[in-house]
Amino acid sequence: MTQFTPLLSLAGGALIGLSAVLLMALHGRIAGMTGILSGLVPPFSTDWTWRAAFVAGAIAAPAAIVGLGGAVPFDSPAPASWLVLGGLVVGVGVYFGSGCTSGHGVCGLARLSPRSAVATAVFMASTAATVFVVRHMLGGL
């Protein structure tokens, strides 16, 4: 069973919100990871430098924690092949949904976007259905 860590979750959410607000305030851009990453693959976006810096920061932060003797715990009872398949399914959904949870759920809802409200509702319903099926119909992992 997954452990609930309210303080760490609150801190992580606050940092995500802060980064989204700063990116919008300083660059006028939405902090949707799909859009940010799409500008880093050919054909490259003309504003690839801030995108690369954003992704580098997302990689450097946990690397710094580990480098300073901390730990970034990760444990998945699912086999690696399921994780890869899940990532591909999410990628297809992101393409057809025109964005990801960070773009729609964090930034879109903050802008009161009706399209983002629908997308986020679909994300949440899909997540609830997946958890129900995996834990109650497949016997959990």
H/E series, N to C? HHHHHH
Q: Roughly how many Å apart are the termini?
A: 9 Å
What structural class is derived from the secondary structure elements? Answer: mainly alpha
Rg, rounded, reads: 17 Å
Please indicate the count of domains: 1
For the report, how would you describe the main beta sheet? none
Overall strand count: 0
Question: Can you tell me the overall shape?
Answer: globular
Q: Percentage of helical residues?
A: over 70%
Q: What is the overall pLDDT average? A: 87
Please give a structural write-up.
Helix 5 crosses helix 6. It contains 6 helices and no strands. It is 70% helix and 0% strand. The chain has one domain (6-137). It is mostly helical. The radius of gyration is 17 Å and the shape is globular.
Layout of helices and strands:
Blueprint: H1 6-27, H2 33-38, H3 48-67, H4 80-96, H5 101-110, H6 114-137
Helix pairs in contact: 5-6
Question: What key attributes describe this structure?
Answer:
single chain, 141 residues, mainly alpha, 70% helix, globular
